[in-house]
Write a structure and sequence with these properties.
The structure is a homodimer.
Chain A (H helix, E strand, L loop, with lengths): L1 H18 L15 H10 L3 H12 L6 E4 L4 H12 L5 E4 L10 H4 L9 E4 L2 E4 L1 H11 L13 H34 L6 H23 L11 H13 L5 H5 L2 H11 L2 H6 L2 H5 L7
Parallel strand pairs in A: 1-2
Antiparallel strand pairs in A: 1-3, 3-4
Helix pairs in contact in A: 2-3, 4-6, 4-9, 7-8, 7-9, 8-11
Chain lengths: ~280, ~280
Protein backbone atom coordinates (compact mmCIF):
# COMPACT_ATOMS: atom_id res chain seq x y z
CA UNK A 1 0.00 0.00 0.00
CA UNK A 2 2.90 2.31 0.95
CA UNK A 3 4.64 1.54 -2.33
CA UNK A 4 1.45 2.21 -4.21
CA UNK A 5 1.07 5.63 -2.57
CA UNK A 6 4.74 6.39 -3.29
CA UNK A 7 4.22 5.40 -6.94
CA UNK A 8 1.09 7.52 -7.24
CA UNK A 9 2.84 10.43 -5.51
CA UNK A 10 5.84 10.26 -7.80
CA UNK A 11 3.65 9.96 -10.88
CA UNK A 12 1.62 12.98 -9.77
CA UNK A 13 4.83 14.82 -9.00
CA UNK A 14 6.21 14.22 -12.50
CA UNK A 15 2.91 15.10 -14.15
CA UNK A 16 2.61 18.32 -12.18
CA UNK A 17 6.20 19.23 -12.79
CA UNK A 18 5.63 18.86 -16.52
CA UNK A 19 2.28 20.55 -16.75
CA UNK A 20 1.98 23.10 -13.97
CA UNK A 21 2.52 26.57 -15.25
CA UNK A 22 -0.01 29.04 -13.94
CA UNK A 23 -1.63 31.07 -16.66
CA UNK A 24 -0.74 34.33 -14.99
CA UNK A 25 2.93 33.40 -15.50
CA UNK A 26 2.80 33.88 -19.24
CA UNK A 27 2.46 37.58 -18.84
CA UNK A 28 -1.29 37.89 -19.18
CA UNK A 29 -3.27 38.87 -16.12
CA UNK A 30 -6.75 37.81 -15.13
CA UNK A 31 -8.15 41.11 -16.33
CA UNK A 32 -6.94 40.47 -19.88
CA UNK A 33 -8.79 37.26 -20.64
CA UNK A 34 -12.39 36.28 -20.00
CA UNK A 35 -12.85 35.28 -16.38
CA UNK A 36 -14.28 31.88 -17.33
CA UNK A 37 -11.19 31.08 -19.36
CA UNK A 38 -8.79 32.26 -16.65
CA UNK A 39 -10.48 30.15 -13.99
CA UNK A 40 -10.68 27.16 -16.30
CA UNK A 41 -6.92 27.31 -16.90
CA UNK A 42 -5.99 27.54 -13.26
CA UNK A 43 -8.45 24.91 -12.13
CA UNK A 44 -7.49 22.41 -14.80
CA UNK A 45 -3.74 23.02 -14.40
CA UNK A 46 -3.19 22.90 -18.13
CA UNK A 47 0.18 23.84 -19.59
CA UNK A 48 0.60 27.51 -20.33
CA UNK A 49 0.61 26.74 -24.03
CA UNK A 50 -2.64 24.80 -23.85
CA UNK A 51 -4.20 27.46 -21.69
CA UNK A 52 -3.09 30.24 -23.99
CA UNK A 53 -4.47 28.38 -27.00
CA UNK A 54 -7.71 27.66 -25.18
CA UNK A 55 -8.24 31.27 -24.19
CA UNK A 56 -7.22 32.60 -27.54
CA UNK A 57 -9.26 30.22 -29.65
CA UNK A 58 -12.35 29.69 -27.56
CA UNK A 59 -12.83 33.04 -25.88
CA UNK A 60 -12.32 34.93 -29.13
CA UNK A 61 -14.22 32.72 -31.52
CA UNK A 62 -16.41 35.67 -32.32
CA UNK A 63 -14.08 38.54 -31.48
CA UNK A 64 -16.63 41.17 -32.42
CA UNK A 65 -13.89 43.33 -33.93
CA UNK A 66 -15.05 46.51 -35.63
CA UNK A 67 -13.03 48.21 -38.33
CA UNK A 68 -13.92 51.74 -39.40
CA UNK A 69 -12.27 52.26 -42.75
CA UNK A 70 -12.48 52.80 -46.47
CA UNK A 71 -11.57 49.96 -48.80
CA UNK A 72 -9.48 52.19 -51.11
CA UNK A 73 -7.48 53.65 -48.22
CA UNK A 74 -3.87 52.50 -47.98
CA UNK A 75 -3.93 52.57 -44.19
CA UNK A 76 -7.19 50.61 -44.02
CA UNK A 77 -5.70 47.98 -46.33
CA UNK A 78 -2.70 47.60 -44.00
CA UNK A 79 -5.01 46.46 -41.18
CA UNK A 80 -7.20 44.39 -43.52
CA UNK A 81 -4.12 42.44 -44.58
CA UNK A 82 -3.33 41.59 -40.97
CA UNK A 83 -6.92 40.49 -40.32
CA UNK A 84 -6.88 38.26 -43.41
CA UNK A 85 -3.39 36.86 -42.65
CA UNK A 86 -4.85 35.88 -39.26
CA UNK A 87 -8.15 34.69 -40.80
CA UNK A 88 -10.12 36.83 -38.33
CA UNK A 89 -13.70 37.93 -38.78
CA UNK A 90 -14.66 41.56 -38.25
CA UNK A 91 -17.45 44.03 -38.85
CA UNK A 92 -16.51 46.62 -41.50
CA UNK A 93 -17.91 50.13 -41.06
CA UNK A 94 -17.46 52.30 -44.13
CA UNK A 95 -16.19 55.85 -43.70
CA UNK A 96 -16.52 57.39 -47.18
CA UNK A 97 -13.35 59.43 -47.64
CA UNK A 98 -14.55 60.80 -51.00
CA UNK A 99 -17.59 62.24 -49.23
CA UNK A 100 -15.33 63.64 -46.48
CA UNK A 101 -17.08 61.62 -43.80
CA UNK A 102 -13.83 61.38 -41.82
CA UNK A 103 -14.02 65.12 -41.06
CA UNK A 104 -17.65 65.12 -39.86
CA UNK A 105 -18.33 65.58 -36.13
CA UNK A 106 -19.88 62.11 -35.86
CA UNK A 107 -16.58 60.53 -36.95
CA UNK A 108 -14.33 63.01 -35.14
CA UNK A 109 -15.95 61.82 -31.91
CA UNK A 110 -14.58 58.36 -32.81
CA UNK A 111 -11.15 59.55 -33.96
CA UNK A 112 -10.35 63.23 -33.35
CA UNK A 113 -7.48 62.99 -35.86
CA UNK A 114 -10.09 62.45 -38.59
CA UNK A 115 -8.30 59.45 -40.01
CA UNK A 116 -9.13 55.87 -40.88
CA UNK A 117 -8.76 53.13 -39.87
CA UNK A 118 -10.13 52.89 -36.35
CA UNK A 119 -10.24 49.48 -34.71
CA UNK A 120 -12.47 48.42 -31.84
CA UNK A 121 -11.95 45.32 -29.72
CA UNK A 122 -14.82 45.57 -27.25
CA UNK A 123 -14.05 48.63 -25.08
CA UNK A 124 -10.56 49.15 -26.53
CA UNK A 125 -10.42 51.66 -29.38
CA UNK A 126 -7.22 52.03 -31.40
CA UNK A 127 -6.11 54.39 -34.17
CA UNK A 128 -2.98 54.36 -36.39
CA UNK A 129 -2.84 51.42 -38.79
CA UNK A 130 0.58 50.20 -37.70
CA UNK A 131 -0.38 50.20 -34.02
CA UNK A 132 -3.62 48.33 -34.79
CA UNK A 133 -1.64 45.83 -36.87
CA UNK A 134 0.84 45.18 -34.08
CA UNK A 135 -1.95 44.87 -31.52
CA UNK A 136 -3.77 42.22 -33.55
CA UNK A 137 -0.53 40.33 -34.29
CA UNK A 138 0.35 40.33 -30.58
CA UNK A 139 -3.05 39.37 -29.17
CA UNK A 140 -3.64 36.74 -31.85
CA UNK A 141 -0.06 35.52 -32.05
CA UNK A 142 -1.00 31.82 -32.05
CA UNK A 143 -3.35 32.16 -35.01
CA UNK A 144 -2.62 32.25 -38.76
CA UNK A 145 0.56 33.78 -40.17
CA UNK A 146 3.17 34.62 -37.54
CA UNK A 147 3.77 38.29 -38.34
CA UNK A 148 5.84 39.31 -35.33
CA UNK A 149 8.35 37.34 -33.29
CA UNK A 150 7.78 37.14 -29.54
CA UNK A 151 10.55 34.74 -28.58
CA UNK A 152 13.95 35.90 -29.76
CA UNK A 153 15.20 39.28 -28.61
CA UNK A 154 17.41 39.53 -31.66
CA UNK A 155 14.53 38.89 -34.02
CA UNK A 156 12.26 41.26 -32.11
CA UNK A 157 14.96 43.95 -32.41
CA UNK A 158 15.55 43.35 -36.11
CA UNK A 159 11.86 43.27 -36.96
CA UNK A 160 11.16 46.43 -34.96
CA UNK A 161 14.06 48.15 -36.74
CA UNK A 162 12.67 47.32 -40.19
CA UNK A 163 9.20 48.41 -39.13
CA UNK A 164 10.59 51.82 -38.15
CA UNK A 165 12.70 52.01 -41.31
CA UNK A 166 9.41 51.68 -43.19
CA UNK A 167 7.85 54.43 -41.07
CA UNK A 168 10.67 56.95 -41.21
CA UNK A 169 12.68 56.21 -44.36
CA UNK A 170 10.37 54.49 -46.85
CA UNK A 171 6.95 55.92 -46.02
CA UNK A 172 7.69 59.67 -46.30
CA UNK A 173 8.92 59.67 -49.93
CA UNK A 174 6.57 56.81 -50.91
CA UNK A 175 3.53 58.67 -49.55
CA UNK A 176 4.45 61.86 -51.43
CA UNK A 177 4.86 59.91 -54.69
CA UNK A 178 1.64 57.98 -54.09
CA UNK A 179 -0.21 61.27 -53.57
CA UNK A 180 1.29 62.92 -56.67
CA UNK A 181 1.31 60.00 -59.09
CA UNK A 182 -1.61 57.84 -57.97
CA UNK A 183 -4.10 59.88 -55.92
CA UNK A 184 -3.92 63.23 -57.77
CA UNK A 185 -4.85 61.68 -61.15
CA UNK A 186 -7.74 59.83 -59.46
CA UNK A 187 -9.26 63.12 -58.28
CA UNK A 188 -8.55 65.03 -61.50
CA UNK A 189 -5.35 66.80 -60.40
CA UNK A 190 -2.05 66.78 -62.26
CA UNK A 191 1.06 65.57 -60.46
CA UNK A 192 3.43 68.32 -59.37
CA UNK A 193 6.52 67.11 -61.24
CA UNK A 194 8.83 69.41 -59.30
CA UNK A 195 7.81 67.54 -56.16
CA UNK A 196 8.05 64.18 -57.97
CA UNK A 197 11.55 64.94 -59.24
CA UNK A 198 12.70 66.01 -55.78
CA UNK A 199 11.20 62.95 -54.10
CA UNK A 200 12.17 60.11 -56.43
CA UNK A 201 15.90 60.25 -55.58
CA UNK A 202 14.99 60.01 -51.89
CA UNK A 203 13.01 56.84 -52.51
CA UNK A 204 15.79 55.49 -54.75
CA UNK A 205 18.33 55.92 -51.98
CA UNK A 206 16.12 53.85 -49.68
CA UNK A 207 15.55 51.20 -52.35
CA UNK A 208 19.31 50.94 -52.95
CA UNK A 209 19.69 49.96 -49.29
CA UNK A 210 16.76 47.53 -49.58
CA UNK A 211 18.39 45.99 -52.66
CA UNK A 212 21.58 45.25 -50.73
CA UNK A 213 19.60 43.79 -47.85
CA UNK A 214 17.36 41.67 -50.08
CA UNK A 215 20.32 40.16 -51.93
CA UNK A 216 21.01 38.18 -48.76
CA UNK A 217 17.58 37.88 -47.17
CA UNK A 218 14.27 36.71 -48.65
CA UNK A 219 12.40 39.41 -46.75
CA UNK A 220 13.47 42.56 -44.92
CA UNK A 221 13.70 41.38 -41.33
CA UNK A 222 14.42 37.70 -41.97
CA UNK A 223 13.90 34.92 -44.49
CA UNK A 224 10.23 34.87 -43.51
CA UNK A 225 7.48 37.35 -44.35
CA UNK A 226 6.91 39.58 -41.32
CA UNK A 227 5.02 42.70 -40.31
CA UNK A 228 7.95 44.79 -41.58
CA UNK A 229 7.25 43.62 -45.13
CA UNK A 230 3.48 43.90 -44.70
CA UNK A 231 3.74 47.56 -43.65
CA UNK A 232 5.14 48.42 -47.11
CA UNK A 233 2.32 46.86 -49.13
CA UNK A 234 -0.22 49.69 -49.48
CA UNK A 235 2.23 52.29 -50.83
CA UNK A 236 3.98 49.76 -53.07
CA UNK A 237 0.70 48.61 -54.59
CA UNK A 238 -0.22 52.19 -55.52
CA UNK A 239 3.25 53.02 -56.85
CA UNK A 240 3.39 49.89 -59.03
CA UNK A 241 0.49 51.42 -60.98
CA UNK A 242 2.49 54.59 -61.73
CA UNK A 243 5.70 55.45 -63.61
CA UNK A 244 7.50 55.07 -60.26
CA UNK A 245 7.26 51.29 -60.67
CA UNK A 246 10.53 51.46 -62.61
CA UNK A 247 12.29 52.35 -59.33
CA UNK A 248 11.27 48.93 -57.98
CA UNK A 249 11.58 46.91 -61.19
CA UNK A 250 15.10 48.11 -61.95
CA UNK A 251 16.39 46.55 -58.72
CA UNK A 252 16.31 42.74 -59.12
CA UNK A 253 16.12 41.78 -55.44
CA UNK A 254 13.59 44.51 -54.66
CA UNK A 255 11.59 43.39 -57.68
CA UNK A 256 11.58 39.78 -56.47
CA UNK A 257 10.52 40.93 -52.99
CA UNK A 258 7.71 43.13 -54.36
CA UNK A 259 6.42 40.18 -56.39
CA UNK A 260 6.51 37.93 -53.32
CA UNK A 261 4.69 40.27 -50.93
CA UNK A 262 2.07 41.53 -53.39
CA UNK A 263 1.20 37.93 -54.33
CA UNK A 264 0.02 37.08 -50.83
CA UNK A 265 -3.67 36.05 -50.83
CA UNK A 266 -4.35 38.22 -47.75
CA UNK A 267 -3.10 41.28 -49.60
CA UNK A 268 -5.13 40.47 -52.71
CA UNK A 269 -8.22 40.16 -50.53
CA UNK A 270 -7.42 43.45 -48.77
CA UNK A 271 -7.44 45.13 -52.21
CA UNK A 272 -10.73 43.50 -53.21
CA UNK A 273 -13.25 46.29 -52.67
CA UNK A 274 -16.14 43.89 -53.24
CA UNK A 275 -14.94 41.80 -50.30
CA UNK A 276 -15.37 44.87 -48.07
CA UNK A 277 -18.81 45.89 -49.28
CA UNK A 278 -20.04 42.31 -49.65
CA UNK A 279 -19.29 41.45 -46.05
CA UNK A 280 -22.01 40.38 -43.70
CA UNK A 281 -21.54 41.36 -40.10
CA UNK A 282 -18.70 39.28 -38.63
CA UNK A 283 -18.40 37.14 -41.74
CA UNK A 284 -16.61 37.21 -45.06
CA UNK B 1 9.43 4.38 6.38
CA UNK B 2 6.64 4.24 3.82
CA UNK B 3 4.99 7.27 5.39
CA UNK B 4 8.32 9.12 5.37
CA UNK B 5 8.80 8.46 1.65
CA UNK B 6 5.23 9.56 1.00
CA UNK B 7 5.84 12.75 2.97
CA UNK B 8 9.10 13.47 1.13
CA UNK B 9 7.45 12.70 -2.20
CA UNK B 10 4.53 15.02 -1.49
CA UNK B 11 6.84 17.76 -0.27
CA UNK B 12 8.95 17.45 -3.40
CA UNK B 13 5.81 17.39 -5.50
CA UNK B 14 4.54 20.63 -3.99
CA UNK B 15 7.96 22.29 -4.26
CA UNK B 16 8.35 21.28 -7.89
CA UNK B 17 4.81 22.28 -8.72
CA UNK B 18 5.51 25.73 -7.30
CA UNK B 19 8.91 26.25 -8.79
CA UNK B 20 9.27 24.27 -12.01
CA UNK B 21 8.94 26.49 -14.98
CA UNK B 22 11.54 25.75 -17.64
CA UNK B 23 13.30 28.85 -18.89
CA UNK B 24 12.47 28.06 -22.49
CA UNK B 25 8.81 28.42 -21.55
CA UNK B 26 9.08 32.17 -20.93
CA UNK B 27 9.52 32.81 -24.57
CA UNK B 28 13.29 33.11 -24.67
CA UNK B 29 15.20 30.35 -26.38
CA UNK B 30 18.63 28.97 -25.55
CA UNK B 31 20.18 31.00 -28.34
CA UNK B 32 19.04 34.28 -26.79
CA UNK B 33 20.76 34.09 -23.44
CA UNK B 34 24.30 33.09 -22.56
CA UNK B 35 24.66 29.30 -22.56
CA UNK B 36 25.92 29.25 -18.98
CA UNK B 37 22.85 31.11 -17.79
CA UNK B 38 20.46 28.91 -19.73
CA UNK B 39 21.97 25.72 -18.35
CA UNK B 40 22.06 27.14 -14.82
CA UNK B 41 18.36 27.90 -14.99
CA UNK B 42 17.35 24.49 -16.21
CA UNK B 43 19.63 22.61 -13.85
CA UNK B 44 18.61 24.56 -10.77
CA UNK B 45 14.91 24.48 -11.61
CA UNK B 46 14.44 28.06 -10.56
CA UNK B 47 11.18 29.84 -11.19
CA UNK B 48 10.94 31.54 -14.52
CA UNK B 49 10.95 34.90 -12.81
CA UNK B 50 14.13 34.09 -10.88
CA UNK B 51 15.77 32.68 -13.96
CA UNK B 52 14.82 35.67 -16.05
CA UNK B 53 16.19 38.02 -13.41
CA UNK B 54 19.35 35.98 -13.10
CA UNK B 55 20.04 35.94 -16.81
CA UNK B 56 19.14 39.57 -17.24
CA UNK B 57 21.14 40.88 -14.32
CA UNK B 58 24.18 38.64 -14.28
CA UNK B 59 24.74 37.96 -17.95
CA UNK B 60 24.41 41.62 -18.82
CA UNK B 61 26.30 43.19 -15.97
CA UNK B 62 28.68 44.70 -18.49
CA UNK B 63 26.47 44.72 -21.56
CA UNK B 64 29.16 46.23 -23.76
CA UNK B 65 26.59 48.36 -25.54
CA UNK B 66 27.94 50.77 -28.13
CA UNK B 67 26.08 53.91 -29.14
CA UNK B 68 27.16 55.81 -32.23
CA UNK B 69 25.66 59.26 -31.92
CA UNK B 70 26.01 62.97 -31.46
CA UNK B 71 25.06 64.53 -28.15
CA UNK B 72 23.13 67.43 -29.77
CA UNK B 73 21.11 65.10 -32.00
CA UNK B 74 17.45 64.72 -31.07
CA UNK B 75 17.38 61.09 -32.12
CA UNK B 76 20.54 60.28 -30.16
CA UNK B 77 19.00 61.87 -27.07
CA UNK B 78 15.93 59.67 -27.41
CA UNK B 79 18.08 56.55 -26.98
CA UNK B 80 20.25 58.17 -24.30
CA UNK B 81 17.13 58.83 -22.25
CA UNK B 82 16.18 55.15 -22.39
CA UNK B 83 19.70 54.09 -21.37
CA UNK B 84 19.65 56.50 -18.42
CA UNK B 85 16.09 55.55 -17.38
CA UNK B 86 17.38 51.97 -17.26
CA UNK B 87 20.68 52.98 -15.62
CA UNK B 88 22.66 51.08 -18.25
CA UNK B 89 26.31 51.63 -19.08
CA UNK B 90 27.41 52.02 -22.68
CA UNK B 91 30.32 53.12 -24.81
CA UNK B 92 29.59 56.41 -26.66
CA UNK B 93 31.13 56.82 -30.11
CA UNK B 94 30.89 60.36 -31.42
CA UNK B 95 29.74 60.93 -35.00
CA UNK B 96 30.25 64.66 -35.56
CA UNK B 97 27.21 65.76 -37.52
CA UNK B 98 28.58 69.32 -37.93
CA UNK B 99 31.61 67.83 -39.69
CA UNK B 100 29.33 65.67 -41.84
CA UNK B 101 30.87 62.47 -40.51
CA UNK B 102 27.57 60.63 -40.91
CA UNK B 103 27.88 60.86 -44.69
CA UNK B 104 31.46 59.55 -44.91
CA UNK B 105 32.04 56.03 -46.30
CA UNK B 106 33.42 54.80 -42.97
CA UNK B 107 30.10 55.60 -41.27
CA UNK B 108 27.90 54.60 -44.21
CA UNK B 109 29.36 51.11 -43.84
CA UNK B 110 27.88 51.14 -40.31
CA UNK B 111 24.54 52.72 -41.28
CA UNK B 112 23.90 53.11 -45.02
CA UNK B 113 21.10 55.59 -44.23
CA UNK B 114 23.78 57.97 -42.92
CA UNK B 115 21.90 58.65 -39.70
CA UNK B 116 22.60 58.52 -35.99
CA UNK B 117 22.07 56.86 -33.62
CA UNK B 118 23.32 53.34 -34.27
CA UNK B 119 23.22 50.87 -31.42
CA UNK B 120 25.31 47.72 -31.05
CA UNK B 121 24.58 44.89 -28.64
CA UNK B 122 27.37 42.44 -29.43
CA UNK B 123 26.65 41.19 -32.98
CA UNK B 124 23.26 42.88 -33.21
CA UNK B 125 23.31 46.29 -34.89
CA UNK B 126 20.21 48.46 -34.83
CA UNK B 127 19.29 51.79 -36.40
CA UNK B 128 16.24 54.05 -35.90
CA UNK B 129 16.06 55.62 -32.45
CA UNK B 130 12.55 54.41 -31.68
CA UNK B 131 13.40 50.81 -32.61
CA UNK B 132 16.55 50.93 -30.49
CA UNK B 133 14.54 52.37 -27.60
CA UNK B 134 11.95 49.63 -27.79
CA UNK B 135 14.63 46.95 -28.06
CA UNK B 136 16.39 48.14 -24.91
CA UNK B 137 13.10 48.50 -23.01
CA UNK B 138 12.11 44.97 -24.01
CA UNK B 139 15.41 43.21 -23.34
CA UNK B 140 15.97 45.08 -20.07
CA UNK B 141 12.36 45.09 -18.98
CA UNK B 142 13.14 44.08 -15.40
CA UNK B 143 15.59 46.95 -14.85
CA UNK B 144 15.00 50.61 -14.02
CA UNK B 145 11.95 52.52 -15.19
CA UNK B 146 9.29 50.31 -16.78
CA UNK B 147 8.86 52.06 -20.11
CA UNK B 148 6.75 49.51 -21.96
CA UNK B 149 4.10 47.14 -20.68
CA UNK B 150 4.51 43.46 -21.44
CA UNK B 151 1.62 42.04 -19.47
CA UNK B 152 -1.67 43.62 -20.39
CA UNK B 153 -2.82 43.42 -23.99
CA UNK B 154 -4.94 46.52 -23.50
CA UNK B 155 -2.00 48.51 -22.18
CA UNK B 156 0.31 47.20 -24.91
CA UNK B 157 -2.27 48.29 -27.50
CA UNK B 158 -2.77 51.73 -25.98
CA UNK B 159 0.96 52.39 -25.56
CA UNK B 160 1.71 51.24 -29.10
CA UNK B 161 -1.02 53.53 -30.39
CA UNK B 162 0.43 56.59 -28.65
CA UNK B 163 3.91 55.70 -29.86
CA UNK B 164 2.64 55.69 -33.45
CA UNK B 165 0.64 58.88 -32.88
CA UNK B 166 3.98 60.46 -31.96
CA UNK B 167 5.60 59.06 -35.12
CA UNK B 168 2.88 59.97 -37.61
CA UNK B 169 0.95 62.91 -36.14
CA UNK B 170 3.29 64.76 -33.76
CA UNK B 171 6.73 64.19 -35.24
CA UNK B 172 6.17 65.44 -38.82
CA UNK B 173 5.07 69.01 -37.92
CA UNK B 174 7.32 69.11 -34.82
CA UNK B 175 10.39 68.13 -36.84
CA UNK B 176 9.68 70.81 -39.48
CA UNK B 177 9.29 73.48 -36.78
CA UNK B 178 12.41 72.25 -34.95
CA UNK B 179 14.38 72.52 -38.19
CA UNK B 180 13.06 75.99 -39.05
CA UNK B 181 13.00 77.59 -35.60
CA UNK B 182 15.80 75.82 -33.71
CA UNK B 183 18.31 74.25 -36.13
CA UNK B 184 18.33 76.88 -38.89
CA UNK B 185 19.32 79.71 -36.50
CA UNK B 186 22.05 77.47 -35.04
CA UNK B 187 23.67 77.12 -38.47
CA UNK B 188 23.17 80.74 -39.51
CA UNK B 189 20.03 80.29 -41.61
CA UNK B 190 16.77 82.22 -41.23
CA UNK B 191 13.56 80.31 -40.62
CA UNK B 192 11.27 80.07 -43.65
CA UNK B 193 8.21 81.72 -42.11
CA UNK B 194 5.93 80.55 -44.90
CA UNK B 195 6.77 76.98 -43.87
CA UNK B 196 6.44 77.88 -40.18
CA UNK B 197 3.01 79.46 -40.70
CA UNK B 198 1.79 76.46 -42.66
CA UNK B 199 3.08 73.98 -40.09
CA UNK B 200 2.07 75.55 -36.76
CA UNK B 201 -1.67 74.93 -37.26
CA UNK B 202 -0.91 71.25 -37.94
CA UNK B 203 0.95 70.94 -34.65
CA UNK B 204 -1.81 72.88 -32.86
CA UNK B 205 -4.42 70.44 -34.10
CA UNK B 206 -2.38 67.58 -32.61
CA UNK B 207 -1.84 69.45 -29.34
CA UNK B 208 -5.60 70.13 -29.05
CA UNK B 209 -6.15 66.37 -29.08
CA UNK B 210 -3.32 65.89 -26.56
CA UNK B 211 -4.91 68.53 -24.32
CA UNK B 212 -8.20 66.62 -24.23
CA UNK B 213 -6.37 63.36 -23.48
CA UNK B 214 -4.16 64.87 -20.78
CA UNK B 215 -7.12 66.40 -18.95
CA UNK B 216 -8.01 62.87 -17.89
CA UNK B 217 -4.65 61.10 -17.89
CA UNK B 218 -1.35 62.07 -16.25
CA UNK B 219 0.57 60.87 -19.30
CA UNK B 220 -0.42 59.97 -22.84
CA UNK B 221 -0.82 56.20 -22.65
CA UNK B 222 -1.68 55.90 -18.96
CA UNK B 223 -1.20 57.57 -15.60
CA UNK B 224 2.44 56.45 -15.69
CA UNK B 225 5.32 57.79 -17.77
CA UNK B 226 5.88 55.42 -20.69
CA UNK B 227 7.87 55.18 -23.90
CA UNK B 228 5.08 57.05 -25.68
CA UNK B 229 5.85 60.16 -23.60
CA UNK B 230 9.61 59.66 -23.87
CA UNK B 231 9.48 59.60 -27.67
CA UNK B 232 8.23 63.22 -27.64
CA UNK B 233 11.05 64.65 -25.52
CA UNK B 234 13.73 65.61 -28.07
CA UNK B 235 11.45 67.68 -30.32
CA UNK B 236 9.66 69.27 -27.36
CA UNK B 237 12.94 70.31 -25.75
CA UNK B 238 14.06 72.08 -28.93
CA UNK B 239 10.67 73.72 -29.51
CA UNK B 240 10.46 75.03 -25.92
CA UNK B 241 13.49 77.17 -26.80
CA UNK B 242 11.68 78.79 -29.73
CA UNK B 243 8.57 80.98 -30.18
CA UNK B 244 6.64 77.73 -30.76
CA UNK B 245 6.70 77.14 -27.01
CA UNK B 246 3.51 79.21 -26.78
CA UNK B 247 1.70 76.33 -28.53
CA UNK B 248 2.51 74.13 -25.54
CA UNK B 249 2.21 76.71 -22.77
CA UNK B 250 -1.22 77.91 -23.86
CA UNK B 251 -2.70 74.46 -23.24
CA UNK B 252 -2.77 73.84 -19.45
CA UNK B 253 -2.73 70.04 -19.46
CA UNK B 254 -0.11 69.87 -22.22
CA UNK B 255 1.93 72.41 -20.27
CA UNK B 256 1.72 70.30 -17.10
CA UNK B 257 2.73 67.19 -19.08
CA UNK B 258 5.68 68.95 -20.75
CA UNK B 259 6.91 70.08 -17.33
CA UNK B 260 6.62 66.55 -15.96
CA UNK B 261 8.45 64.77 -18.76
CA UNK B 262 11.21 67.36 -19.26
CA UNK B 263 11.94 67.28 -15.51
CA UNK B 264 12.97 63.63 -15.56
CA UNK B 265 16.61 63.21 -14.47
CA UNK B 266 17.29 60.78 -17.32
CA UNK B 267 16.23 63.40 -19.83
CA UNK B 268 18.33 66.11 -18.18
CA UNK B 269 21.33 63.80 -18.34
CA UNK B 270 20.63 62.98 -22.00
CA UNK B 271 20.83 66.73 -22.74
CA UNK B 272 24.08 67.12 -20.79
CA UNK B 273 26.69 67.23 -23.53
CA UNK B 274 29.48 67.02 -20.97
CA UNK B 275 28.10 63.69 -19.77
CA UNK B 276 28.59 62.32 -23.30
CA UNK B 277 32.10 63.59 -23.85
CA UNK B 278 33.19 62.95 -20.29
CA UNK B 279 32.32 59.30 -20.43
CA UNK B 280 34.92 56.64 -19.96
CA UNK B 281 34.37 53.43 -21.82
CA UNK B 282 31.38 51.63 -20.30
CA UNK B 283 31.09 54.13 -17.46
CA UNK B 284 29.43 57.41 -16.74
Amino acid sequence: MGSFIVLVSFTLMILMAISYEPYSGMGVTASDVPTSCYHYCNQKLESRHQCYKHCDESAHKDPGYKLYGYPYSANTRRVLTVLYEKDLSFDPITVDLRAGEQKKPSFLSINPFGLVPVFEDKDLKLVESRAISQYIATVRRSRGTQLVNHKSYKKIGTETMWMYIESFEFDPPATILTQQLAINPLVGLKPDYKVVNETEPKLEKVLDIYEERLKNSSFLASNNFTMADLFHLPNIQYLMGTPAKRLFESRPSVNRWVAAITARPAWKKACDVKAWYGKKKNGY
